[in-house]
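Re: your question from the hallway

Yes, I did run it. Sequences:
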Amino acid sequence: MLLHKLQFDSHGQLRHLLTTEGLTSEHIFNILDRAERFFSQSTGEIIQTSELQGKTLANLFFEASTRTRSTFELAAKKLSANVLNLNISHSSTSKGESLRDTVRNLQAMQCQLFVVRHSSSGAAHFVAEHINPSSTVINAGDGCHAHPTQALLDMFTIRKHRGDFKKLSVAIIGDILHSRVARSQIHALKALNVGEIRVIGPKTLLPKELKSMGVEVHYNLEEGLKGIDIIMMLRLQTERMQHGLIPAGNAYYRQYGLTSESLRLANPDALIIHPGPINRGVEIQSDIADSPNAVILDQVTNGIAVRMAVMSLLIENVKRASS
Amino acid sequence: MKTLIRNGRVIDPANQLDTFTDILIENTKIAHIGPQAENHKADRIIDAKDKWVIPGLVDSNCRPHLQHPHGSTLIEEAKAAIKCGFTSLCIPPDGDLIIDTPTNVARFKQQTDDELPQLFPIGALTKQLAGESMTDMSALAKSGCIALSQAMHPVKDLAILRHCYDYAASFNLLIIIQPQEHTLARGGIIHEGTMSTHLGLQGIPVAAETIAIAQHLQLIKETGIKAHFTCLSSSDAVQQIRLAKAAGLKISADCAMHSLHLTEMDIAEFNANCHVYPPLRSQMDRDGLIAGIIDGTIDAICSDHRPLDSIAKLAPFADTVPGLSSIDTYFALGLDLVEKQGIPLSNLIKAMTMNPAKIFNLPTGNLSIGTSANLCIIDPNNQYQVTEATLYSSGKNSPFIGRELKGQIMMTLLDGSIVHEA
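Structure:
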């Protein structure tokens, strides 16, 4: 396991959130508990607080995104922070110098929270390395590396619906090779001592040393799904077919698609989650995505509370460190 | 002018010499070695007590020219190399000026002078390194190219490569091969392994190297060409070379000093100074390379020096320019292998001096009587911490910054003249 020292302060508290790798179960439960407190006990809706009043969040998106960016924006507004949305085309900032300059400029505009999405793995680390001590970075997805808030909202959703992680068998299905979500999920699940993690996909879509992450690897969906409690689907990017990693047509769906037939092998009440957007009929049978065990829309709502929790925790930690 | 170097431990594998003795230099040549050297009246006496005297370092693959626009010039870097103990540098053809015509060889040579290490150009195998039509290889050789290479550029197809090798064989020319099957390396950033899995960076499989080696070996066998493989990175590659040598092929090989020290794990949290090509591979690969040095499969250790300016590394990992600045740490890292990895000192000195000189047929790399007095004097016990300020190279892109190293170049002599004194 890599330590990712950059995201911790000298007391081992989160200074930035760059990856779930290196987080302890205390770190994760702290965030999940905090997120729970943002739900109103009477209505179940997310509450409005003034925790981050006077703070400014910069949504720094070098890669197109609607949902993730919107939930970060909503989360910040629920905490009464100001939000600056920057959609920067990659071409204008492909040079690192300008990425660093962009961040410096935003610091000069007194932004304290930087939410970074970038197509290069390590981009959030890069920003965190060049940022001043009063600011904090949240990785909203860097290349194929990490997407920690997505993994944390998944953990929140699993805990909410299924409780104790230690008893659960989890399967992650699909394109792990290119998935920052899968990597972050695996690290989080490992930290939470989940009973079992299986990863299922064709060999072309699995990283070579996947076992070094402490998971069981399956190339066969039926085998991998047997007795599973949680099914974590990944979005299949169709461009992978053009790159010759899988056959064109519906071969992938036939071998790895979650259908009522393959679902029968999992535990009867298996929970189905998906980071969205869903490709109906590509990785998942359309009516399964809408079934009661599929909590895909609940994940979206939980994502707001979890992102609020991350923001409030990081600002609190930065404040404590500077006082 | 007579210079006497006294009391040093003289290590010269070419003459099976490792003893405390004196060296007498007359003008530019080594005139005498042995205790009776004291009897000669010297104009200048250098006391080398507690020091080592070895042939000047010969780098089989050094890129002192910067590809990045804000870097230093070839001359500045060559001057830095002198201070790091190098007296001969073999320069691949893929610098700013592609060495593919005799005119360009002449232009390249204009950049050299007496105070610099000897710069030996390697000519391009194909015009503009485009991999399509062969250069006038014999003219390049006549104008001073010590070998021919495609550097890191692919050749369009194997038929062209085969013709190039056949043609070069007609003139008994040496070919330098940096093995990579570029369709397998395409888009790759780091070794395909544990770190590419963890960091989500596209991997370069070992097969990108081994498939290329297999193809080249077949063509070498068929055309009878002399070939040298440079910058090997994997254990499997070492084994391929070992078997090919045993089968009698006229080949030699080197690897970069950093590949004997670093592995993919050193990339840690996206350390861009560990972004190099060929990539740092696994611990097993590193062990395989070290075994190759010990049993002589790998003949030479190159610096694969690529100085870059700070902007080149100022980006998310995959967007940085690959390469590391290595001449400054080269010798001390070599000594570290002797202390920690059990590489015999004589193997190390051979791999840094005599062997690369032999491979390229250069009149240096040894302390034989009558040869040019290219040598360096080393304090093997001087321990220091590497910092940006200790690097003579203007490329500060060294992953070894912060490390404690032992062994310092105290003096470099080129053609009998002191060109560096610490």
